[in-house]
TrEMBL record:
GO terms for biological process: cellular response to phosphate starvation; phosphate ion transport. The chain crosses the membrane at residues 12-45. It catalyses: ATP + protein L-histidine = ADP + protein N-phospho-L-histidine. PANTHER family: PHOSPHATE REGULON SENSOR PROTEIN PHOR (PTHR45453:SF1). One of its GO terms (cellular component) is plasma membrane. It is a multi-pass membrane protein. Its EC number is 2.7.13.3. Keywords: ATP-binding, Cell membrane, Kinase, Membrane, Nucleotide-binding, Phosphate transport, Phosphoprotein, Transferase, Transmembrane, Transmembrane helix, Transport, Two-component regulatory system. Member of the two-component regulatory system PhoR/PhoB involved in the phosphate regulon genes expression. PhoR may function as a membrane-associated protein kinase that phosphorylates PhoB in response to environmental signals. This is Phosphate regulon sensor protein PhoR.
Length: 437
């Protein structure tokens, strides 16, 4: 038996006992009147509290517990306990919901939820920017009224969502490329995931260009080489012609070798995540080595001047730095016509070591300068080839300098010459006496 039954039976028993006592003292009639009056009072009491409970259930005020005697007090108390439990559960669900929303907002991808009529139910900030939406203003709008690109409308209506759609972004994101995929869920609802793949597309197209360039660069000497081979096989050649053909074949083979060598150097530099080391270079020996190489490449066709501050040195990977500096000197000679001047200097500017190569050569038109360090970028393709260039030299220079936190600055005037300046950071610049230390 529960508490309500017990309490009701106890009050009935009390009423009966009181009525019996009144009956014994004042007679049966008075006892009956007493009992009726008590029942009416009880009825009013119950109606009052039923009314109060009704109002409470209609407009609950959390935390306010009405007080009452007997069973009603118990009912109010239990209702209060129930409300408290529910309140705690609702708060827990609300917190989970808000954490869930925060997590989706933090996602780098766009998320939009559509109802069963393809109306926007919710979307995160990224989806807003991708589609040029306003989550508050556009709520409950049909998505194709706002994202009108025909390919998107076709995709949404196709009901085939195994593949993702690649499309242009909207609003401020017009220049971006998006990948969009729909995932149906629940009762005819849809989840749309969007991703900005502009960068991915760019690197992908760079990779494609690179493969095409490498193939092209290797194909040219290979075609020439096989042409010579065929000629030699099919034509009876005298000794002089034979030697000439072999010489030309050798040139093409070494051109291919140079390309492969530079590609491997570049791949090693790009793949090497280790810092380049901080041994101090013997710059006196390095400058002498560069000067000897420059003179033998020029073969006396240029005036070559080397000036070095011998008290100055730099910390880094010797082979890398020497190959980068040698590249700049070699380029200066290759792109300077006979009789020109090449001026190489190693000196300190403020607290930084600076290597500069100035030539009086062909010069570079301004619009080409920002692209010189791209792989296979050449201002004049035929001149680069004629002088044995691979188009990878400055790309290698850029990587070596990046690894040493050094900068490359190019100044040039078409027809008058160029200056390539390398500035090492103060942290890698040292005085020569440190070598001895
Ligand atoms: P390449 O093997 O073709 O010389 P690089 O990467 O070393 O390749 O140089 C890229 C291009 O920059 C060259 O093809 C050339 O057009 C230009 N260039 C580099 N150095 C000079 C220079 N000192 N004077 C004029 N043009 C230069």
């Amino acid at each position: 038996m529960n508490i309500i039954w017990t309490r009701s039976l106890v009050s009935l028993a009390l009423l009966a006992a009181l009525s019996a006592i009144v009956g014994a003292i004042f007679g049966v009639r008075i006892a009956l009147v007493f009992a009726v009056v008590m029942l009416v009072v009880q009825g009013f009491f119950s109606t009052f509290h039923t009314q109060r409970l009704w109002r409470l259930l209609d407009a609950p005020v959390y935390g306010e517990v009405p007080s009452a005697l007997g069973v009603w007090g118990e009912i109010y108390y239990r209702l209060h306990k129930l409300a408290k439990r529910w309140h705690a559960q609702v708060r827990q669900v609300e917190q989970q919901h808000s954490r869930f929303i925060q997590a989706i907002q933090a996602s780098p991808n766009g998320v939009a939820m559509l109802d069963d009529h393809d109306q926007i139910e919710w979307c995160n900030a990224i989806a807003e920017t991708h589609f040029g939406l306003d989550a508050k203003r556009d709520l409950r709008q049909h998505i194709t009224h706002l994202v009108r690109q025909p390919e998107f409308v076709r995709y949404l209506n196709s009901h085939h969502y195994e593949e993702m759609l690649v499309m242009r972004g909207m609003g401020a994101n017009r220049q971006h490329t998006l990948s969009v995929q729909v995932f149906p869920y629940g009762e005819n609802r849809k989840l749309i995931l969007t991703q900005d793949i502009t960068e991915l597309e760019r690197t992908d197209s760079m990779r494609r260009d690179f493969v095409a360039n490498v193939s092209h660069e290797l194909k040219t000497p290979l075609t020439v080489l096989s042409g010579f081979l065929e000629t030699m096989r099919e034509l009876p050649l005298d000794e002089a012609d034979r030697a000439r053909y072999l010489e030309m074949m050798d040139q093409q083979a070494s051109r291919m070798q140079n390309i492969v060598r530079d590609l491997l150097t570049l791949a090693n530099l790009e793949g090497d995540m280790r810092p380049p080391g901080d041994g101090l270079l013997d710059m006196r020996a390095v400058m002498r080595h560069l000067e000897d190489d420059a003179n033998s490449l020029s073969g006396g066709r240029h005036r070559i001047i080397f000036r070095a501050d011998e008290s100055l040195t730099v910390a880094g990977a010797e082979t890398e730095i020497v190959s980068a500096l040698a590249n700049l000197v070699t380029n200066a000679i290759r792109y300077t016509p006979d009789g020109g001047t090449i001026d190489v200097a190693w000196h300190r500017v403020q607290d930084r070591a600076v290597f500069s190569v100035r030539d009086s050569g062909l010069g570079i038109p301004a619009e080409h300068i920002p692209r010189l360090t791209e792989r296979f970028y050449r201002v004049d393709r035929s001149r680069s080839r004629d002088t044995g260039g691979t188009g990878l030299g400055l790309a290698i220079v850029k990587h070596v300098l990046q690894r040493h936190h050094a900068e490359l600055d190019v100044k040039s005037e078409e027809g008058r010459g160029s200056t390539f300046i390398v500035r090492f950071p103060a942290s890698r610049t040292a005085a020569r006496k440190s070598i001895a230390a």
